[in-house]
Automatic annotation (TrEMBL), chain A:
Protein name from the UniProt record: Uncharacterized protein
Highest taxon of the lineage: Bacteria
From TrEMBL, chain B:
TPR repeats: 157-190, 380-413, 414-447
Organism encoding this protein: Anaerobium acetethylicum
Coiled-coil ranges (or none): 289-316
Protein name: Tetratricopeptide repeat-containing protein
Record keywords, A-Z: Coiled coil, Membrane, Repeat, TPR repeat, Transmembrane, Transmembrane helix
Annotated signal sequence range: none
Domain of life of the native organism: Bacteria
Length: 48, 458
């Protein structure tokens, strides 16, 4: 049985064209490669 | 593949030959990202957009520099009606890889059609407004708004899903199913749509469906929308949903109205013009007929005049022409005169018998009288003797000819008349004989000839 209110909560407002800039700026594009780099860096520092 | 540390191209070794970094794990991450991209591509090809988007996001989480995955994710978002997320992916893609990047073309394509972009922006605003209406409990307004949005941006999957949810809430299951089918046409494995569809099937088969159908019918009769500060509620007509039938009905109604307009407005005017033309023609014809009638009357009058003149001329001509005419009379008079001069009294008398003395006047009359006095008696006597001789000889034809002349010359000669009758009788002409005998009796009653005639009548 579908609960209307619960389902409605899953719907979010769509981004408008004016929000593109902000969206791009706020997007976290950290990927596994970045995490790997961080890990490698920390390892090196620990070795030192 | 380039080294994540120094950016130089890597070899098959797990150690970067330039900076000496261990790139084994990095290589695995990149390969996994590519595998997820391939998976996303395969799903996108079969229109499993939800699945494709998920794979592509995973791919980008592993390797943000996977330009192909990012561009494809932008395309998938665009196809699902999410233009802004698509645009942001392409912008980021372009920033991460400036050269040889198809994302630049996608961005250019969107920016070149500013009107379309504005329209899509408006639809997004309206979708957000509709979502707000839903949260406020104004389902009717939300439905109206979403219909407008989806008419402008039919690929907005979120719009279709929200609309179908609203329809399910107000128990318009058929419309909900329609919206969900549209979603599944765009995104075949959309989880939300499949879940709603499953729930819809259960609801349709449920015991409340009959009551729901009745409620649907009741709710279908009204629609409400906002105009400024006013909320306008109007009755709706169900058959508007069936645009094909409504078009046919509208066309038929239009034809009927057109036919009625022609019948009541155009046809009377046409008939009137025809009537006036006919009247004009009739008037012209009547005038012509009147003219002709007058002409005919005039001609008849002329004809009558000509006929009377002709009769008068004929009468005058008859006076002069023919055997009894004046010309013939003068000719006979001349013949008689010449015969008398030649001593032929009989010929003169015969010629005189042909003349109608009443037509003669003046000198001609005097001459006639003179000749008649001189010749008639002598000729009659001579002819009687000759005719009587022929009678006695049995030459009845000659006797009849001569005695007939004598009777004409000397009407008082009873013997001539009697023997004429006897000649007729002897020649077998009983009718003329009887007629002659009757004449003798009438003209000479009591005489010997009359007695004899009476005795001979048969």
């Amino acid at each position: 049985m579908i609960d209307f209110e619960e389902e409605l909560k899953k719907f979010h407002p769509s981004l408008e064209v004016e929000d593109v800039e902000e969206t791009i700026y706020n997007q976290d594009i950290t990927d596994m490669t970045d995490i790997l780099k961080e890990m490698m860096k920390e390892l090196k520092e620990k070795k030192k | 593949m380039k080294c994540f540390n120094c950016g130089n191209v890597l070899s098959n070794s797990d150690i970067c030959k330039t900076c000496g970094e261990d790139v084994a794990l990095y290589k695995r991450i990149v390969r996994l990202s590519n595998a997820l991209y391939n998976d996303g591509l395969a799903k996108a090809k079969v229109r499993d957009l939800t699945g494709a988007a998920a794979s592509l996001r995973q791919s980008l989480k592993l390797n943000k520099n996977n330009t192909d995955a990012r561009n494809l994710l932008g395309l998938v978002n665009y196809e699902m009606g999410e233009v802004v997320p698509a645009l942001s992916e392409w912008v980021m893609s372009k920033n991460l890889q400036k050269e040889n990047n198809i994302a630049g073309n996608y961005i250019k394509a969107i920016q070149s059609n500013q009107n379309r972009l504005d329209t899509i922006n408006q639809t997004i605003k309206k979708y957000n407004q509709a979502l707000l209406y839903c949260r406020q409990g104004n389902e009717d307004l939300a439905v109206i708004q979403l219909k407008k949005v989806l008419s402008l941006n039919p690929r907005l999957i979120q719009g279709h899903l929200l609309l179908s949810l609203l329809y399910m809430k107000i128990e318009e299951y058929e419309k909900a199913a329609k919206s969900l089918n549209r979603v599944l046409k765009i995104d075949t494995a959309n989880t939300t749509a499949l879940r709603y569809m499953h729930e819809l099937e259960k609801l349709r088969k449920g015991p409340q469906s009959a009551a729901a159908a009745a409620k649907v019918k009741e709710n279908a009769n009204r629609v409400a929308y906002r105009s400024g500060n006013d909320t306008i509620i109007q009755p709706t007509v169900r058959f508007r949903e069936n645009t094909g039938l409504s078009h046919v009905i509208n066309i038929l109604i239009g034809l009927a109205v057109g036919a009625a307009v022609v019948w009541f407005l155009v046809v009377p005017g046409y008939r009137q013009s025809l009537k006036s033309e006919m009247n004009k023609a009739a008037i012209a014809t009547s005038e012509e007929v009147a003219t002709k009638t007058a002409e005919i009357a005039s001609l008849k009058e002329s004809l009558a005049t000509a006929q009377s003149e002709s009769e008068a001329a004929k009468t005058e001509l008859a006076l002069y022409a023919g055997e009894t005419g004046l010309v013939a009379a003068y000719e006979n008079l001349l013949t008689a005169s010449n015969a008398y001069d030649a001593g032929d009294d009989v010929a003169a008398a015969e010629a005189l018998t042909k003349i109608d003395a009443t037509k003669l006047t003046g000198a001609a009359k005097a001459l006639y009288d003179s000749l008649a006095a001189e010749t008639t008696a002598k000729a009659a006597k001579s002819l009687y003797a000759s005719g009587y001789a022929d009678y006695q000889k049995g030459n009845y034809a000659e006797a009849i000819t001569k005695l007939s002349k004598v009777v004409t010359m000397a009407p008082s000669d009873a013997d001539a008349l009697y023997y004429l009758g006897r000649s007729y009788q002897k020649s077998g002409d009983t009718a003329n004989a009887n007629a002659t005998f009757t004449k003798v009796i009438e003209l000479f009653p009591g005489t010997k000839q009359a007695n004899n005639a009476a005795a001979n009548i048969k």
